[in-house]
Amino acid sequence: MTLLRVRDLSKQFVIRGQGGLLARKASFTAVDQVSFDVALGETLAIVGESGSGKSTTARIAARLLDPTSGSVEFEGEDISRATGKDLARFRNDVQVVFQDPFSSLNPRYTVERIVTAPLTYQGIAPKGGRRAFTRELMERVGLNPDHSQRYPAQFSGGQAQRIGIARALAVNPKLVICDEAVSALDVSIQAQVIKLLMRLQRESGFSYIFIAHDLAVVRQLSHRVAVMSKGRIVELGSRDQVFGEPRDEYTKTLLAAVPRINPEWDRRRRLSKGRS
Amino acid sequence: MTDELFVVEDLTVTLPTSRGPVDVVKDVSFTVGRDDTLGIVGESGSGKSMTALAVLGLLPPGARTSGSVRLDGRELLGQSEGELRSVRGNAISMVFQDPLSSLNPYYTVGLQIEEGYRAHRGGSKRAARQVAIEAMERVRIPDAARRVDDYPHQFSGGQRQRIMIAMALCCSPSLLIADEPTTALDVTVQAQILELLAELQTQTGTGLIFITHDLAVISSIARRVLVMCAGDPVEYGTAEQVFSDPRHEYTRTLLDAVPRIDDEVML
Ligand SMILES: Nc1ncnc2c1ncn2[C@@H]1O[C@H](COP(=O)(O)OP(=O)(O)OP(=O)(O)O)[C@@H](O)[C@H]1O
Ligand SMILES: Nc1ncnc2c1ncn2[C@@H]1O[C@H](COP(=O)(O)OP(=O)(O)OP(=O)(O)O)[C@@H](O)[C@H]1O
Ligand SMILES: [Mg+2]
Ligand SMILES: [Mg+2]
Fold first, then answer.
1. What is the DSSP letter of B158?
2. Which ligand sits nearest to residue B51's alpha carbon?
3. Are A16 and B149 a contacting pair, CB within 8 Å?
4. Which of A129, A139, A239, B39 is spaced 20 to 30 A from B104 at the CA atom?
5. Where does the ABC transporter domain lie (chain A) (predicted)?
């Protein structure tokens, strides 16, 4: 079943034209005729060039930004028309983990308040109380639960990123848009968070839009992959097709440029491990 | 060696918390030479950014430090704010982990690059502007001549990272500390930026401290690697030694967990 349906989405930003102060306004197309679906329980990854329109697409899909043209439907309803209760439900069902962790967390709130604020607005009292609820979520994303009364500035970059993830998971959403949500995590905590996301998908049927530059991570957890370049989707296919038989030139360039650990060092490390 | 550009000895950083002081960096030592690259990797929250901020005197209020941090033989730890200000952006440039919160939202990116350049090199506004545009072109911001007058929020995450790098490049610092400077870049742009940094290093002898979770990048650019875990420097050695024969269990765990593009998939 299709959960999210995006059709012919375009976004133009008004920009100053060339020629100093008297310049006319011009426009820049950041997202150009983008269409895709996300099925229930599916992970669609969006990869591609820096500046190609991935975050802009994500923000429009979450109704944080209006498109210039095109439509977004969530569970069959046009999201631009939702008001009142429907809008509140949409805001709950679709959560975003933002690319810049610190600027998306209120600096004056403690972690506990950040994580439980959406529940408070809805008048829901978490089982076992706010403190216990927050502690449990913090543990799941690998944060020290004793830090639930700390403020965002008291955390490292990767820890702040995980506060964003905990906040998104707190309200039991249907779709989580992860914009570079694991990029500031060391590889072992990253693996833990990815396992958590995949388990939630199996158990609760979460869908994900997973925006990332790390193609090895994308390959681990996506069902389908969209590749963006200069505002357009240049390739969209199953994970195995895009990684195994890429059709577009840009996709091929991207896959060829994935950095690897020096293979000789890697080989020697594996051998030495066998010995010890 | 005595002619090392940058020497950190037994650096300890203590932060106040509601439960008393906590050592977030414990006895960290390393050196960086001219045209040399040190990679710092490790656990999220292990004190990598705090190490960098301590060097620049930008720690949160109430922080205490001990040990020694010397650039060209000159002690930086415990210097007055005025002295440190002249070092920052001049002899030492920093690319911060969170570009959005370290760029000023009320000034155009061009102005921010220009200010940094003029504080360092002087010269006319017009010349600085030209430098800013060129620096933005070098970090592959499309249409730089027009975009130089845009504000930080009008750029993508990876573009903001590159603007921070452009700023650092303009100052040709003796030491550049880059904290996760390429996490928001696609692999092709990332490769171009790494090349640009290498170019800067050969041209001006800049020493580079590169903090990242991307071990593949570290293996390709760093000569030496420091691995941190919970504030402790658990391993310090040449890149070859750390990657091919890690001595510490944490380093092994980390290297085993690196996702590889040709791994078996779980899904
Ligand atoms: N408010 C704005 N005004 C003008 N241009 C904008 C604005 N916001 C974004 N852009 C431009 O739109 C393009 C797409 O930006 P977007 O943030 O969607 O890219 P992205 O694919 O997420 O990139 P990254 O991987 O670097 O985060 C970029 O060229 C960016 O400079
Ligand atoms: N203002 C503060 N007060 C108390 N503790 C803090 C403060 N800021 C950071 N910390 C703690 O200091 C430790 C080191 O933080 P640091 O930012 O150096 O980590 P990091 O290694 O850069 O991690 P990441 O890879 O996630 O960016 C973390 O555990 C963090 O929670
Ligand atoms: Mg983005
Ligand atoms: Mg950090």
1. H
2. 2
3. yes
4. B39
5. 4-255
Phi, psi of B213 (to 5 degrees): -95, -5
User: What is the C-alpha separation between A255 and B148, in angstroms, rounded?
Assistant: 31
Max CA separation in chain A (angstroms): 72
Q: For chain A, what are the domain ranges?
A: 2-18+25-275
d(CA B65, CA A255): 44
Nearest to B157 among A99, A221, A266 (CB): A99
ipTM: 0.93
For residues A66 and A57, the answer to whether their CB atoms sit within 8 Å is no
Model confidence over A103-113: pLDDT tens digits? 889 999 999 99
The domain B4-99+173-256 having CATH identifier 3.40.50.300: the answer here is yes
Range of weakest confidence among A55-69, B213-227, B249-263: B249-263
Residue B69 clears pLDDT 70, i.e. is over it: yes
Q: Is B41 on the interface with A (CB under 8 A)?
A: yes
Residue A66: strand, helix, or coil:
coil
Mutate-to-test residue for ligand 1 from A27, A47, A55, A254, highest number of ligand atoms within 8 A of CB? A55
CA distances for A23 relative to A18, A111, A275, B129, angstroms: 6, 46, 69, 18
In terms of CATH, what superfamily is A2-18+25-275? Answer: P-loop containing nucleotide triphosphate hydrolases (3.40.50.300)
Residues contacting residue B87 through CB under 8 Å, at least 6 positions apart: B56, B71, B76, B79
What is the CA(A160)–ligand 2 centre distance, in A? 9
Identity of residue A107: P
The pTM assigned to this predicted structure is 0.95
Gap between the Cα atoms of A168 and A157, Å rounded: 17
Longest dimension (CA), chain B: 58
| Residue A204 in contact with partner chain B when CB distance is under 8 A | no
In chain B, domain spans? 4-99+173-256
DSSP label at residue B259: -
Closest CA to B170 of B127, B114, B211, B124: B114
Hey, what amino acid is at B86? S
Residue B103 is classified by DSSP as S
